[in-house]
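pinging the channel bc i need a second pair of eyes. not urgent but kinda urgent?? the chain im working w is below, pasted from the shared doc
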Amino acid sequence: MKTRLHPPLSLEQAATLASASLADTVRAVSTLDASRRILLFDGNLLPLGSEPYDVIHQVSGDLDMRLGAIFDECEGPTVLVGMDTPQLDGSMLEPLFDEWPADTDAYLGFANDGGFWTIAMADPDGSLIRGVPMSRDDTGTLQLDRLTQAGLRVRMLPELVDVDTIDDARLVAGLAPHTEFARTLASFENSTTETGAVR
């Protein structure tokens, strides 16, 4: 998220906004009844609210390799949630933390940019993610194809807005004005209106 928001945000502002997005995501999933919580993290300053998480540093390689490694690390139903959709409400994921329907082996939630914001598997298998091209406008479709071709029965979740640009950020802030993300973005825009730094 950081580099794609610069400009118009400064690199420091973009990093702060990304941190707010991560904090909102952590809060959204904090009430879900998970037996284990993992934070796949690359950095030194852990976000507030991450104390209950097992912090796993990202393996080297492209995003598909890093996501696949997490699924290889887990046993039993596993849910992975990205941090670029701070409008996420934990209620969207509640069915995944209950008994899964008999006709469901995986869940997938598309993002509006063609990617996906969440993927879950009853029997986690990183090989079903590795090799899927990431950050493309057909990534979500390709991931769905990979799952179904492996024989998994996939249930879809609602589409969310992935924050890639300042317009995305403003849209998400409007959808979820109660979030830290929205408050942080507003503070930047309010402080720079006179200078024209954020347009």
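so The chain has five helices and six strands. and The two ends are 18 Å apart (CA to CA). — does that match what u expected or am i reading it wrong
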